[in-house]
Protein 1
Amino acid sequence: MRLQFLGSGDAFGSGGRFNTCFHLERAAHGNVLIDCGATSMVAIRKWGIEPNDISTILVSHLHGDHFGGLPFFLLDAQLVSRRTTPLVIAGPPGLRERLAILMEAMFAGSTAIVPRYPQEIRELALHERAEVGGLAVTPYLMKHYSGAPSYALRVETEGKVLTYSGDTEWVEELVPAGRDADLFICEAYFFDKVMKYHVDYTTLMKHLPRIGARRTIVTHMSAELLDRRDEIACEAAHDGLVVEF
Ligand SMILES: [Zn+2]
């Protein structure tokens, strides 16, 4: 399975990186976008991704650097890419309302437009394994204030397991979320500074053996951690990075 980091940055453009957005290619059921941060439409163009080939967008939590690109993606689908195929957007409870607020704030009147393609917004229940566009997705509860539950997503597709932490400080829920995953993508913010709502690299490394993922890649690094990249003993993402797993 092939995944490309279209965006591997934090909310603040550290290192000139795009906001969080991963692109997963599948043999069947269409491709998947995992998070769609504010800059994601630019990243999609930069890496030559065809938006109409994306059938499913998963959202970890309702922060601008993780779902703020959706208004651009949806307007592009309607007006530029002239999408005709179904699109499913799935995320935490509150996604439907918060997306409507976001759309209206950014493009007034846009929620009145009837999509020219079948569009479905799904709100995923905690710990319930849901079938979403040919994926099995199980959300786990993270600790990261976003006005709605912030999720880590365990995604099963085509015989592989991919877990993405979203943003969170260390929580024990990361252990079952990532257990034995083929690919575990986890945020790491600072090198060793413990803070609220984000996990630091040193704490993550301490717990990694208990998670037992086959491969771990850290993402969403602060400027401080990016400066200390040479000291990281784990794979780290960068924009454009392609991984086969
Ligand atoms: Zn973030």
Protein 2
Amino acid sequence: MAAEPNCVFCKIVAGEIPSATVLRTEACQAFLDIGPLSEGHLLVIPVKHYTRMEDMPPEELAQLSRELPGLGRALVEVTGAAGYNLLQNNGSAAGQEVTHVHFHLIPRSTGDGLGYRWRPQAYPEGRADQILARYRDVLAG
Ligand SMILES: [Zn+2]
């Protein structure tokens, strides 16, 4: 997929916008988020423009994903974080603001106040089975 002319991440890949890049491979680029949720917050993007994760060819997603363990280790070593989140948003309803696939690696410490309102719900009787059946149908193609 060609670069999108108005995409800030495509401009970063092209070097038209400077970035604090920590890693660049054939498939991906990792750089400091300029609006970090915590020090050392990284963004990892494919060098080609895709809007959502499911738009990516699996091989290209795999190439990007291969860098994640090393980036996670580096994040822990550099920031001293006790943990980190790997976060990837698809669609504005999910909080995606830049429409170029990106993975956040967010250093975390206990009590840092970041994080989701995580409010698990229970399925009504029979609903989980309906959803399970739909997933299996869709995934079976
Ligand atoms: Zn882009």
